[in-house]
Amino acid sequence: MSDTAARIHSTALVEEGASIGSGTAVWDSVHVRAGARIGSDCIIGEKTYIAAHVVVGNRCEVHAFVYVCSGVTIEDGVLVGANVAFTNDRFPRASTPELDAVRADDVEEEALPTLVQEGATVGAGATIGSDLVIGRFAMVGMGSVVTHSVPNFALVAGNPARPLGYVCRCGRPVHRGGRGTVVPDSCTCASFGRRYQRDASGGLREHAGA
Hints:
Layout: E1 7-8, E2 13-14, E3 19-20, E4 25-26, E5 31-32, E6 37-38, E7 43-44, E8 49-50, E9 55-56, E10 61-62, E11 67-68, E12 72-74, E13 79-80, E14 85-86, H1 104-110, E15 114-116, E16 121-122, E17 127-128, E18 132-134, E19 139-140, E20 145-146, E21 154-157, E22 162-167, E23 173-176, E24 186-188, E25 195-198, E26 204-206
Parallel strand pairs: 1-4, 2-5, 3-6, 4-7, 5-8, 6-9, 7-10, 8-11, 9-12, 10-13, 12-15, 13-16, 14-17, 15-18, 16-19, 17-20, 19-21
Antiparallel strand pairs: 21-22, 22-23, 24-25, 25-26
């Protein structure tokens, strides 16, 4: 069911059983499958595909030509750039081993989960693996291939994606340096003064009182 305040382009296909929140704009030729849930005040760009039972939070931007497969959960305030592809099958085949039937009906049951946590950015053209987490306010560079989980506030890029540093809530760098670089106990955003502390998981956490 779509909220009456949602704006859905006449060429978009929103299947019965999908849910679109108030204030969300669904642009031309988007396909939203049954069981998908999209929150309020989102933008879903043209020709994007959102599979069955995908969850998209509030105030997200999912740009044009994005493929969001089953098993993906996107929390509030996430930006997904154009031409991003999510994946959910570690052992993909078109058919059964006997080649007597396609396995499309089985894929959803076998879908591995991917969680994109609040505030994160996934740059244009990135490919996101499955069974991983992209942490809070993390940033994935354009064209990256993400094969492992990304810590909170981390900046990663490349194929496969590797750590390049850490970013603020605003997206600006607070620390630069690749794998093996010693992260200071605390960092401060030069633009907004927000303070961060190193955490045990390899990411950052917001300084108490920041």
